[in-house]
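Working notes for the structural subgroup meeting. M.R. asked for a predicted model of this chain before we commit to crystallization trials. I am recording the input and output together here so anyone reviewing the notebook later can reproduce the run.

Input as submitted:
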Amino acid sequence: MKNSKNLALYTLGVIAVLALPILLQSQGNAWVRIADIALLYVMLALGLNIVVGYAGLLDLGYVAFFAVGAYLFALMGSSHLSDTFPWFKAMFPNGLHTSLLIVIPLALVVAGLLGALLGAPTLKLRGDYLAIVTLGFGEIIRVFLNNLDQPINITNGPKGITAIDSIKFWGLDLGKSWKFDGFTISSVTLYYYLFLALVVATIIISHRLQISRIGRAWMAIREDEIAAKAMGINTRNMKLLAFGMGASFGGVSGAMFAAFQGFVSPESFSLMESVMIVAMVVLGGIGHLPGVILGAVLLAALPEVLRYVAGPLQAMTDGRLDASILRQLFIALAMIVIMLMRPRGLWPSPEHGKTLTKKNGAPVDPTHAAVAPGTLQTHAPGVDSPADEVPGAASRPMSINP
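Returned structure, recorded in token form:
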């Protein structure tokens, strides 16, 4: 009965997610664009959750990988390189205009390698020191992108790169509307389904990593790095793998962002973006996939929804209050209230091992539990037969005391 209920809920959820852009499209493409951006932020939050939620490494420079993926697609999907370098134009007169099947693996690999390079000098850092170093790394990438227009124009500096190709694969151009039997599916709706497919793939990979030996090693490092090292876990390689895996999802999300926007500039990759992505993970529930998704959706959509609240308030005060400042104030207040009421996040991971139960479900006090001969010892989870049990004699609770 329970399985059938779960199956019905999953089915309704899938139908709702698939039908959402069609319903939003009837109210205008602006709402579908909000849903598209929310999916990109979900992908970013899931990638950062590997670093922060699983491995316990506070990364405040995660937006750097988002920027690397976006500029990688911008250079490969526009004529910027051909317009700048004559030798490149001789080989590719109109630019590269790379296929999606090449862009996604390349963005994943490049961002992953860059994430491992970031993790290498920070292996011995923890807590606040790690946060400061990663924050500086993110700012360095943004400053580089802002100044790599001289003496060689690679990123076009603060002007950004324009006229970026839309995504094309299998003869379908996501930059154009698709008409089917008199019904029109807009471009932003097509992007929604692509982003949804990438988010689903990210969720599956993250879940498989979480329950794998690698995921358990990350969580052991998060709880106690010294104990994890003592148990034989190679903490250096595990940390580098966490940085690389998390960064790879950021690179793919950045490439999709560049194709969706058709324009990239360093202003899109500021420190505030990194802070917001970290807030999505913390607000939703660190290390819990449904919570991270919920936090990303809420914080991505909340600023746009609050436009409809801040605008009328600005009109009521005759323009004395700026709508953008009011939106930031409302977002900050909402985050403060949520964290005060739900300090572990909106949807935290379930707690395990807090109480011990007998077979009939009644709680057991480990210090006073009496164990019958030949039965499982309830106060030592995972131990079927106590080490100090004497066959044929009454067993006693395991203890460090004589």
